[in-house]
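Reading a protein record of the kind used here takes only a little practice. The record below shows the convention in full:
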Amino acid sequence: MTEPVKGPASYFPAIEKKYGRPVSEWQELVRASPLTKHMELVAWLKAEHGLGHGHANAVVAATLAERG
């Protein structure tokens, strides 16, 4: 039996459904951005790309977690 997805990744199916783009594309945008702070990136995704706060936060959190 598989464990349910937890954390930021639990938002990914809803993000892909609502915005019509794979999460990997959103994460690539975050990686390419000159911004580095979590809340700056969240605000940028909301203002420039129309993501809701929770969705932007999940994308940024997951992407920044990759950096370690």
About this structure: The mean pLDDT is 95. Residues 53-67 form the longest helix (15 residues). The helical segments are 12-19, 23-32, 38-49, 53-67.
